[in-house]
Amino acid sequence: MADTWREPYQVVIEVENKQCKMVGKLASLGFKHLKVVDVRSSSSGSVRHLMDVGADQANKVPKELAAKGYVGRKSSVWLESEGCEVCNTILAHDAFLVSGKSIQDNIITYSFMVPTFEAYRGIITDLEKTRHKINIRKVGKFEQKIDVLTENQERIFWLALKSGFFDYPRQIGMAKLAAKLGISAGTLSEIMRRGTRRLLEHYFKQDL
Known about the structure:
The chain has 208 residues and is α+β, with helices and mostly antiparallel strands.
């Protein structure tokens, strides 16, 4: 794994974001009652938003705004943009967005992974400099739990779990997670395969 992820953290913050470009774009086109259901970064550097626009407006969203390969639901559509100040600040510190959603008015909660505590502090400092109101909900550090996996394997599994790799549907795929961590998908797959074997051998040790 790239050395930059030696001490990762999971962070959840609430931010008053009145500059969400996707909300602003849709509002300028006459869409009302907009809600951010999810926000995710992409390997291309853009930001994808799952927007609830209402069942009566979903088919009116311009096709050029739709994110390729993402399928929405009846009232929600995946849209792609270059990202707003908040998203771009998070991404500028080698972090990656796990999810984001509206909780009221212009308040959006963002969950993201950072490689170090310094990266986390840098994000908060930069957002405060741009006068964003921030409520820090969670800052969780990776800590090795049991002496079954190597520290690197356990860190990988922790990052994968917190990033939504094991969710259904997955919030992040193997290739994207590997790219964020600075390793190849093949290397990541092998680390997880070896780690899974260790976990299973530990779990079933009475039967071996």
